[in-house]
Amino acid sequence: AFFWLVSLLLASLIWFISVHLSDRDDAKQQYRLLIFGAAISVLLQELFRFAYFKLLKKADEGLATISEDGRSPISLRQMAYVSGLSFGIISGVFSVINILADSIGPGIVGIHGDSPYYFITSAFLTMALVLLHTFWGVIFFDACERRRYWCLVLVVATHLLTSGLTFLNPRYEATLIPIFI
């Protein structure tokens, strides 16, 4: 989770600087910067997932050298699962916090023509992202271990696609169905 938080911090800094260097009155440019920020965030998350894999690989070698039988007490699959789950949980916590912050505001969701399904679809989206991060972690670690670079590209591409699909909101059927698939 710490690695995910650091990647989010770096992505936020890059986005913050780019917004302040741009024309704040140009709505299209600000929207493009938002998309840029999401893409940078995904790429940094995957870069930090790789850094975490390398760190765990080193730790695994160290554990194997000090164990009695020469094998690590924790398997790579277990580490991949826990890593992916921690990335997913911290991502989900941030999603839920943002949604709860939206719920504090004045008015009622849907009163001005917005979708009344905002909270339920946000919950399903958060659930999907937690599961996807878990799957991505397992696939990513396995791909790094077996040197299957096409799987790494698949993880990064589906992560970018998933993040990109969220820009279709509030057309939730166009977002949720492909993400769950």
TrEMBL record:
Protein topology in the membrane: Multi-pass membrane protein
Residue stretches spanning the membrane: 31-48, 79-97, 117-141, 148-168
Keyword list, A-Z: Membrane, Notch signaling pathway, Signal, Transmembrane, Transmembrane helix
Signal peptide: 1-22
Swiss-Prot/TrEMBL GO biological process terms: Notch signaling pathway; protein processing
The protein's assembly and partners: Component of the gamma-secretase complex.
Stated role: Potential subunit of the gamma-secretase complex, an endoprotease complex that catalyzes the intramembrane cleavage of integral proteins such as Notch receptors.
Alphabetized PANTHER family for the sequence: GAMMA-SECRETASE SUBUNIT APH-1
Protein name per its UniProtKB record: Gamma-secretase subunit APH-1
